[in-house]
UniProtKB/TrEMBL annotation:
Pfam families: RBFA (PF02033)
Family of this protein: Belongs to the RbfA family.
GO aspect biological process, one term: maturation of SSU-rRNA
Organism: Buchnera aphidicola (Anoecia corni)
Functional summary from the UniProt entry: One of several proteins that assist in the late maturation steps of the functional core of the 30S ribosomal subunit. Associates with free 30S ribosomal subunits (but not with 30S subunits that are part of 70S ribosomes or polysomes). Required for efficient processing of 16S rRNA. May interact with the 5'-terminal helix region of 16S rRNA.
Main location: cytoplasm
Keywords on record: Cytoplasm, Ribosome biogenesis
InterPro entries from the UniProt entry: KH_dom-like_a/b (IPR015946), RbfA (IPR000238), RbfA_dom_sf (IPR023799), Ribosome-bd_factorA_CS (IPR020053)
Name the record gives this protein: Ribosome-binding factor A
GO molecular function: ribosomal small subunit binding
Record bears the keyword Cytoplasm: yes
Gene3D superfamilies hit by this protein: 3.30.300.20
GO cellular component: cytosol
Subunit and interaction comment: Monomer. Binds 30S ribosomal subunits, but not 50S ribosomal subunits or 70S ribosomes.
């Protein structure tokens, strides 16, 4: 494993931890607080200028609501970057692109099917 790849993984883990903390403690928008979201993964570009933040929702009953929440989160990405710049020491804080990741709900769906099969 080369140093640049290791650095990218390390920075993405730090960003994941700090962004989770920001959504938990610093963001007071009830539309975000009530959505019960989780940061599933962060991928960084090779130059570390862009970060794709994959968000899953614990209760994904309505995809329209999830997409609206992602748009709300994307609108506050500048504020999240500002808070990140105060918390972590990086030369440049990456531009955050929030994306909806359905793997969490897919995993729950498969788990429910397996549990139903076990009951039979």
């Amino acid at each position: 494993m080369n140093g640049k790849h290791y650095r990218s993984i390390r920075i993405s883990e730090i960003l994941k931890k700090e962004i989770s903390y920001i959504f938990l403690k610093k963001i007071n928008d009830p539309r975000i607080i009530n959505s019960m979201l989780t940061i599933l993964d962060i991928t960084l570009s090779k130059d570390l200028f862009n970060a794709n933040v994959y968000i899953g929702f614990i209760t994904e009953n309505n995809k329209n609501i999830c997409n609206k929440t992602i748009k709300i989160i994307q609108n506050c990405s500048g504020y999240v970057r500002l808070l990140l710049s105060k918390k972590i020491q990086l030369r440049i804080i990456p531009i955050l692109n929030f994306k909806h990741d359905t793997s969490f709900s897919t995993g729950n769906y498969i788990s429910n099917i397996i549990n139903q099969i076990k009951k039979k």
